[in-house]
Amino acid sequence: MGLPPFGAFKPLCRTVGSYPICNLFFKQAPSALSVTDSRNLTAFENVAPVGINIECGIPRATDGHLGNIANVILCGLSLPLVLFLASRCSRRVAAVGRVELRALLLLYAITLPLQLITTGSFLKQSSTPLVILTAIHVGTVVALFWVLLANALVATQIVEDGTPSSLIPFYAVALALFVVTTYISLDTAFGFTSAFKPSNPPSNLTNVTLFVLTSVWPAFCVFAYFIIMTYVVLGMLQESRPLAYYIGAALLFVFSQLVYFLLSKVICKGTGAKVDGSFLATLLETASIGVLFAAWISITEDSWDNNDYYPT
Question: What stretches pass through the bilayer (predicted)?
Answer without folding.
Answer: 69-87, 99-118, 130-155, 167-186, 206-234, 243-263, 278-299
